Amino acid sequence: MPVAIITGASKGLGRALAEALAARGWDLVLDARNPEVLKETAAALEAYGTRVTALPGDVTDSGHRAGLVAQARRLGGVDLLVSNASALGAEPLVRLEELPLEGLRRALEVNVVAALGLVREALPLLRAAPAGAVVTVSSDAAAEAYETWGGYGASKAALDQLAAVLGAEEPGLRVWAVDPGDMATDLYAAAVPDDDDPRPDPASVVPALLRLLDERPASGRYGAPALLEAR
After folding, report:
1. Is 156 considered catalytic here?
2. Full-model pTM
């Protein structure tokens, strides 16, 4: 069966995608920082009858990234790598004049450097897969100027560029940067805790990601709302 590595997989979009893939028979290697929540997620997904390996840790740790790829190799390889783990840089978000530089460094390390490091670790297995693919979870803050979203948006813009170049350099793979749109996630709640407006459940975005896997369009940046509307 195909194997996917998903970071930030204990909750939100990462968990929703993992569940959809498990329902399709995919084997999974899951990452998150909270061991208990990740363990609960893995146990729930094992009910689908697939093999699920949960490896808690921080994606900025090169040893942890190597461990994720090693676990995937044990399951048979890497067919899909999803960089979903994200850091905001400040919680709640603040204007650039107040953004701690250490917070910006953390956002860049998690959202950009770690994502590239994991791709580099997994690249031989991705190239060997029958249909290797990389998904990087972007944001509309990467393309639009929203007050207080500068640090996070800058990191996601950098991730978009890395994904674009990787797609050009690896024509045998599919590399998709995906803007999921608004979602009700813990990340958003931490970013803007005073915003109580209803937002879509992350599970509503998953069909857009599955469409990419099913139809394998050209590498590039895609918005989940447009993918869903075109179905």
Report:
1. yes
2. 0.97
